[in-house]
């Protein structure tokens, strides 16, 4: 394989990314909406969890592996659902926002020093990024450090949302938590992209679309 990284051509890249997001977020959301409309919130939450784990099981049977984004979605959704159903309290329900981000932080941090950091795995699964066959230490260090970066982003989100939950009324919390989440995730995405481009330049690697 040539000394470069490959992305699928634009249309295939769009299909790959859309399907990855659909199975990790779209399917459980549809299951939740239908079940909640028919039988109430708790049944809807359980349906969302069931849809996520069923998708993961089918993936495991058909392909032999479960995508990292789907695994994260299943773990976080299961934890959040357990908290909501166990308590039924609106404040405890809102607690799943910072708790979910803390779980994300731990998931990223757990793999950051490994041979397969989570950012590299997600890049391969979500956008089908294909790395060179020859190991590049600089590229691997980037994925490890980018994984630490995202662990820090989710830790910062967990702390910020916990502070907002403690000090703000529910309507204000929902608005500010959404703004904080979008802002930090967008900033992390831009920073990761710029950092990635810098690493490619330093290592002499090129990023190109796969042949048709």
Radius of gyration: 19 Å
Q: What's the end-to-end separation, in Å?
A: 16 Å
Number of domains: 1
Oligomer: single chain
Describe the main β-sheet briefly.
Answer: 2 strands, parallel
Assign a percent range to the helix content.
over 70%
Q: Which band does the percent of strand residues land in? A: under 5%
By DSSP (H or I, 4+ residues per run), the number of helices equals: 7
Tally the beta strands. 2
Strand order of the largest sheet: 1-2
Instruction: Return residue spans where pLDDT drops below 50 for at least 5 consecutive residues.
Output: none
Following the backbone from N to C, one meets helices and strands in this order, namely EHHHHHHHE
The geometry reads as globular
Mean pLDDT, to the nearest integer, reads 83
**Protein structure class:** mainly alpha
Report on the architecture of this protein.
This protein is mostly helical and 212 residues long. It has one domain (4-203). Helices cover 80% and strands 4% of the residues. It contains 7 helices and 2 strands. The chain has a two-stranded parallel ribbon. The longest helix has 34 residues, at 170-203. The chain is globular, with a radius of gyration of 19 Å.
